[in-house]
Amino acid sequence: MQQSLAAIAVVLVISAGLQSSTGFGFALLSAPVLSALLGPVQAVTTITIVGAVVDSLTLFGNRDRPQPALADLRVICLSAVPGLVLGAVLLARLPTRVLQVAIAASVVVAIVHRLRRRRIVVNSRWLGPAAGVTWGALTAATTAGGPPLLLYLMHRHDDARTIRDTIVAANLIRLPLSLALLGLTGTWHPPPGVPILIAAGVCGWALGKLVFRLLTPARYETALLTLLALTAAATVAAALQ
């Protein structure tokens, strides 16, 4: 048990570092590993708890004032409500293998979009609501809901800070509903050693700020995409076993 706790803490440190540096990546990296070590239900609970701490520090733990895109934030959060309900039901009913494939698919989408490095202009009033519903469903079912939200915000904005702050703010706004749904569906199961895991998240948040200053953006993104690719491959391998 102590070995498993140590492994989970290491994963959370790395994941929190990615989150504090880029605004996403926490669940994408930690969900597959934690699902394998704890099972999907406890993994979602763990990531929800630690992710809330990391997101709060990312948004409010810096001297700079947060700059989320308020109009996009309203659209995303309102449309995420039905998605969260759907995702919570899926978490309670679907087998582990299906959830693992969903996580891997979301990781692949994020990697492909980042590699293309092009902003695609899509003039559709349904794009925002569709991104919100998908984000809500994937977040509740797998905690890895970042890719659709990231794709939508990259269509809308060029500024990395605006994208980061909007994603983090959206995570915090939907947190109360996520907690309520996990409780109502009977899928709220914190693992042992929660204070240690929270401390790991805080360490990762601080480490991410330091790493971001030391590494060039190009090298950091290469490391990020490499980690995500390895995560997707490991998740697919686990699902096929």
Give the structure's gist in a few sentences.
The chain is mainly alpha-helical. The chain is 81% helix and 0% strand.
Topology diagram in text:
Elements: H1 2-22, H2 26-38, H3 40-60, H4 70-93, H5 96-116, H6 127-142, H7 146-156, H8 160-173, H9 175-184, H10 194-214, H11 217-240
What does this structure look like?
It is a single chain. With 241 residues, this protein is mainly alpha-helical. The chain is 81% helix and 0% strand. It has 11 helices and no strands. It has helices spanning 2-22, 26-38, 40-60, 70-93, 96-116, 127-142, 146-156, 160-173, 175-184, 194-214, 217-240. The two termini are 24 Å apart. The mean pLDDT is 81.
Element order, helices and strands? HHHHHHHHHHH
Describe the main β-sheet briefly.
Answer: none
Share in helix: over 70%
Q: C-alpha Rg, in Å?
A: 16 Å
What is the count of β-strands?
Answer: 0
Structural class, judged by helices and strands?
Answer: mainly alpha
The rounded distance between the terminal residues' Cα atoms is 24 Å
How many helices does DSSP assign? 11
Short key terms for the protein model shown above:
single chain; mainly alpha; globular
